[in-house]
Write a structure and sequence with these properties.
single chain; about 425 residues; nine-stranded mixed sheet; eight-stranded parallel sheet; 17 strands
């Protein structure tokens, strides 16, 4: 597999864009300056006049998580194509590629177009693409750039027929690489039986517009339970995926077979079950974990196989704006600023209490007796988050801070 590349000039240009009022939380004295100038000055955003809430990244935690996951993958002989929808930040993807990631995983054609604008040339599109306009754009992109590789899923004969007809009508010169997707009962997308897997694979292999290169799946489609029973169900599913690879061994049309699964909860089980191949030909096992980069203090703090090793890197700071009751504080952070789809934010450095509810712009913070004298109106508090995907999408520009709280980078997101 050729190393993935990014247009370094396009990414570097982000550091030369002028800052202004569009980027919430940042100090107004940064307006008119560029990220490069702010970083060169090594400023503290709070000392410079940040207004709450403010989302930040921690450089030391990012660097630690990047190296930890890269080493883990190397030790187990698997590749990593991290899910770019987590952050939608080309600057962070560059660091993931530099650490050894071989592609980026994306969920929609719009996300593909975003990363293509930054020259990303290795993409896993983890869905069946049946959008007519999207397929036509993709066919043009593949034909115009021989170095651009993309693989997506197929999970129905109808999908194969739709994709093939559109690509043929568009005059596509390159076939589109596809993996047949094996689904879970009660889960999300994917074929639900061996017969369906085989029929879809056969249709893709017979299409002149598609090229069958592997098998894909997603083992957390029914949840993130990490009990023994749940992990055994995941193992059983992955063994079905493995058996599909063996059964279809002669149908694959590439020089090697792509086998891919692995979100951020069960990637250890994926590495156990989908490596050690024989009798199939060269096999690349590719994980698609995305949340390892920032980790969290909630969902993945409980469920990641590396929960005891990875460090939370993404937090949100907010101020106490009201203390209407002895055990209640209202904080300037709400559903427009922080995730709430998995767990509520976690206050750092508080002995008792926690967030009990979020409004659009307020958090309700229960304050225990030991913290009442410290949690006063105007106090800045830092909150850990759960599920980073739904924090990143609320922030267009996020300061990266060193261990002294000074800005070393400003990360731009594109949602």
């Amino acid at each position: 597999m050729m190393p993935a590349t990014v247009d370094a000039t396009a990414v570097a240009a982000l550091s030369d864009e002028s800052l202004d009022w569009r980027y919430k939380g940042l100090p107004s004295q940064w307006w008119g300056r560029t990220p490069a100038q702010v970083c060169a000055a090594g400023v503290d955003p709070f000392a410079d006049g940040a207004v709450g809430p403010l989302c930040v990244l921690r450089e030391s935690a990012l660097a630690h998580n990047l190296s930890t996951m890269a080493e883990w993958c190397r030790d187990r002989g698997v590749e990593l194509a991290p899910h770019g929808k987590t952050h939608m930040a080309p600057q962070l993807l560059v660091r993931q590629f530099d650490a050894g990631a071989t592609a980026v995983t994306l969920a929609t054609i719009s996300q593909v177009r975003t990363f293509r604008a930054f020259g990303v040339d290795r993409v896993v599109l983890a869905n069946e693409l049946v959008d007519d306009a999207g397929l036509r754009w993709l066919a043009s992109e593949l034909d115009d750039d021989p170095n651009f590789d993309l693989v997506c899923w197929v999970d129905s004969v109808r999908g194969v027929e739709t994709m093939s007809a559109t690509l043929a009508d568009a005059g596509a010169r390159r076939p589109l690489d596809v993996c047949v997707e094996v689904g879970m009962p009660g889960g999300r997308t994917g074929c639900r039986s061996d017969d369906e897997v085989d029929a879809v694979a056969r249709a893709a292999a017979e299409s002149g517009q598609l090229r069958l290169v592997g098998v894909a799946g997603y083992e957390a489609a029914t949840g993130h339970d990490v009990t023994h029973e749940a992990r055994e169900r995941v193992r059983a599913y992955l063994r079905e995926l493995r058996s599909s690879v063996v059964r279809l061994a002669t149908a694959f049309q590439g020089d090697e077979v792509l086998v891919t699964a692995g979100g951020s909860t069960y990637f250890d089980v994926v590495a156990d079950e989908l490596t050690g191949w024989s009798g199939v030909g060269p096999v690349r096992t590719v994980l698609r974990s995305g949340c390892y980069l920032t980790h969290d203090d909630g969902l993945y703090g409980r469920t990641s196989p590396l929960a005891d090793v990875l460090r939370p890197a993404l937090t949100v700071w907010a101020q106490v704006t009201s203390r209407p009751e002895p055990d209640l504080a209202l904080v300037t952070m709400g559903r427009r600023d922080v995730s709430f789809d998995q767990d509520l934010p976690v206050p750092y450095r508080m002995a008792q209490g926690g967030v009990t509810k979020l409004n659009d712009q307020h958090a309700y913070l229960r304050v225990g007796p030991d913290d009442r004298d410290r949690v006063e109106v105007g106090t800045w508090l830092e909150f850990g988050i759960s599920h980073p995907c739904t924090v990143f999408d609320k922030w267009q520009l996020i300061p990266v801070l060193d261990d002294d709280g000074r800005v070393v980078d400003l990360v731009r997101t594109f949602f």
